[in-house]
Amino acid sequence: MSLLELSNVTAGYGPTPVLFDISMQINKGELACLLGRNGVGKTTLLRSIIGLNSLTKGSIIFDADDISKMPTFKRAKYGIAYIPQGREIIPYLSVLDNLKLGMAASGKKSKKIPEEIFDFFPMLKEHLSRQGGLLSGGQQQQLAIARGLMSNPKLMLLDEPTEGIQPSIVQEIEDTLKRINKEKEITVLVIEQKIDFARQLAEKFFMMEKGVIVAQGETEELTDSLVNQYLAV
């Protein structure tokens, strides 16, 4: 059953389009990767889904409702969590307060951090009073994902969660995203540059080139020739 459906989406920055007639569908419970070289429009696509970039054409259907003109904060309350490239945690706030920001995005009043957050990210429990900016890059990425999870989303959008992170933490992130997808039944869409990570993580892929989707399918259909054609530098 479809959770997210984009139909003929054109979007960009001001009058300059970056995306051209994008149509794609992600079903409930899927774990998908969005692939492509730098500058082909992958981040713009995620920003358009969460509402940070306005559409000049097309529509976005989320959980059977048209959210094309819905403001970003309403999309967050509606069940979309966005974990941007660079993580964008608040460096001077504690880990605890960064997590509470995620809860605020959902509009919930509760002040208690659900214990499942520490089940997924046990490291965070040890650093609740520490400033977010003092965490390592890998720890900050885990905090960013946990903050997104705090809103209890139906869909998580992650922009290059493995960028600049040591291999052992990359493996932890992969394992945790799989658990979140399976145990919480949260649909996940990840922008990724590491092809091995994408193949191990996702069951579905979309390949972008110059603002359009040029290939898509099950991950086992992600051939070396496709990788060489659209990802090789």
Protein model, in words:
It is a single chain. The protein is of the alpha/beta class and 233 residues long. It has a domain at 2-89 and 156-230: P-loop containing nucleotide triphosphate hydrolases (Rossmann fold, 3-Layer(aba) Sandwich). It is built from nine helices and ten strands. The chain has helices at 42-50, 72-78, 95-105, 115-120, 122-126, 137-149, 167-183, 195-201, 224-230, and strands at 2-13, 16-27, 31-35, 55-62, 65-66, 80-83, 155-159, 187-191, 204-209, 212-218. The strands form two sheets. The chain has a six-stranded mixed beta sheet, with helices on both faces. The protein is globular and about 45 Å long. The model has no long low-confidence stretch (mean pLDDT 93).
Which secondary structure elements does this structure contain, and how are they paired or packed?
Elements: E1 2-13, E2 16-27, E3 31-35, H1 42-50, E4 55-62, E5 65-66, H2 72-78, E6 80-83, H3 95-105, H4 115-120, H5 122-126, H6 137-149, E7 155-159, H7 167-183, E8 187-191, H8 195-201, E9 204-209, E10 212-218, H9 224-230
Parallel strand pairs: 3-8, 3-9, 6-7, 7-8
Antiparallel strand pairs: 1-2, 1-4, 4-5, 9-10
Helix pairs in contact: 3-6
Number of helices: 9
CATH topology of the domain at 2-89 and 156-230: Rossmann fold
Shape, principal axes of CA atoms: globular
Would you tell me the structural class of the helices and strands?
alpha/beta
Q: Radius of gyration, rounded? A: 17 Å
The H-and-E topology, N to C, reads as EEEHEEHEHHHHEHEHEEH
Largest sheet: 6 strands, mixed
What percentage of the residues does DSSP assign to strands (E)? 25-35%
The helical percent reads 25-40%
Give the oligomeric state of the chains in this entry, treating copies of one chain as homo and distinct chains as hetero: single chain
Name the strands of the widest sheet in spatial order: 6-7-8-3-9-10
What is the number of E strands?
10
Distance between the first and last residues' Cα: 36 Å
The second-level CATH architecture of the domain at 2-89 and 156-230 is: 3-Layer(aba) Sandwich
Q: Would you identify the CATH H-level superfamily of the domain at 2-89 and 156-230? A: P-loop containing nucleotide triphosphate hydrolases
Quote the average pLDDT. 93
Domain ABC transporter: 4-233
Pfam families: ABC_tran (PF00005)
GO biological process, one term: L-amino acid transport
InterPro entries: AAA+_ATPase, ABC_transporter-like_ATP-bd, ABC_transptr_urea_ATP-bd_UrtE, BCAA_Transport_ATP-bd_LivF, P-loop_NTPase
